[in-house]
Prior knowledge:
Structural class: mainly alpha
Number of strands: 0
Largest sheet: none
Oligomer: single chain
Strand content: under 5%
Distance between the termini: 35 Å
Amino acid sequence: AVKAARLRGVDRAYRALSGDRVDGPELAEAARLARRAAESVDTAGRPLAAANAEPEWPDAPHLQLWQAATILREHRGDGHLAALLLAGLDPAEALVSFAAIGAASVERFESRGWTREEWAAAHERLAVRGLMAADGPATEAGRDLRRRVEQDTDRLALGPWQTLGPESTERLAALLGDYWVAVLGSGLLPTESTLGIGKV
Length: 200
């Protein structure tokens, strides 16, 4: 029942954002390409990607696109967690160090449930390692570590895009460009840039 409700919500959101274009040939082509990439993911050691790859594919192309995007997102997310562990960052430290490089505000993470004491303790641990200054911002070593985390995440996420190939990947990006702009302008996503350089 929860999964069915989830699909209904996605269907309504896509139709609200894109109207009749939801049933157009461009979105159907994008769905085929994204599904090909998603079906190639290696889910070993990636529990969220594996869980989202388990359900049967929906019939409608726009829902297939959403399913593919979900699998690919969680595939990357699982790899990101592995990269954070490799960097020696625990869950609180991962968020504190991310905020410290200006990638997102501290307030962005209030929903994660860390107390001020836990946040401060993570900050102190990072400072002891030379990754953050005592007064808050990341040191150059801290920025280098976060860069390595992102590079490792990119490398671990590369598989499905190698399978799809550069031409098809570029085609998928081109097909989704206008839809992505519509999503950004909808207000459904957080307005804070992931680069920490202002508002979308």
